[in-house]
Design brief:
Elements lengths: L8 H13 L1 H6 L4 E5 L10 E5 L11 H4 L4 E5 L10 H11 L14 E5 L13 E2 L2 H10 L7 E5 L5 E6 L3 E4 L4 E4 L1 H13 L2
Antiparallel strand pairs: 1-2, 2-3, 4-5, 4-6, 6-7, 7-8, 8-9
Helix pairs in contact: 5-6
Length: 197
């Protein structure tokens, strides 16, 4: 565990004690990135502890032997980790999006999307979805309004998947049922499914 310009001894002690009690799970679980539920620390909103395996981080890039045996741990939010990330996706989340060294950080919800907007030319390349920030997601979602040939798929930290399209109004499908929404409703819906614990 590390911090930069935000060290908090009480929070660090709480995280380390929490992980020590779950040492077998931390080491034995094979997933590259996991969230250990049930964490709390007085005065903090973190609700899980994240754990990343050595093959998915570069905590010690100049010392491969040390890097290969160190598990990274950090206070986190349940909306940030799905537990199904591949090694590459875990590495991207940990290294680029979570900012785990900032112990005062706000949540960085798991927002995985694949989309295409033929009107603006924006979209993901190929079939692989990409991680984006919630703000970027909402921006792109708003740009799809009125574009009937557009498509958008969203996955969140609970591994729920939705398809969103415009057909005179918003249509959201989870694979089972389709719901119609207004522009204001779609933004509220997006905020709920992205950040809800």
């Amino acid at each position: 565990m590390s911090s930069k310009d935000s060290y908090d001894a009480e929070l660090c002690r709480a995280v380390l004690a929490f992980v020590r009690e779950r040492e077998a799970e931390v080491v034995d679980r094979p997933e590259p990135l996991i969230a250990l539920p049930g964490f709390s620390c007085l005065g903090r909103d973190f609700d899980v502890v994240g754990r990343i395996r050595p093959q998915a981080h570069r905590l010690f890039p100049r010392d491969p032997d040390l890097n290969s045996v160190v598990f990274g741990i950090f206070p986190a939010y349940s909306s940030e980790i799905s537990g199904t990330e591949s090694v590459d996706r875990a590495s991207e989340r940990f290294g680029r999006m979570l900012k785990v060294c900032d112990l005062n950080r706000m949540p960085s919800p798991y927002v995985l999307v694949r989309f295409s907007n033929p009107k603006s030319g924006a979209g993901t390349i190929g079939e692989l979805p990409v991680f984006v920030s919630p703000d970027y997601f909402v921006h792109e979602l708003r740009d799809l309004e009125g574009v009937e040939a557009a498509r958008l798929e969203l996955w969140n930290h609970r591994n729920e998947k939705w398809r969103v399209r415009w057909d005179g109004d918003w249509r959201v499908s989870d694979g089972g049922q389709e719901i119609r929404m207004t522009g204001d409703e779609i933004v509220l819906w997006a905020a709920t499914v992205i950040s809800e614990r």
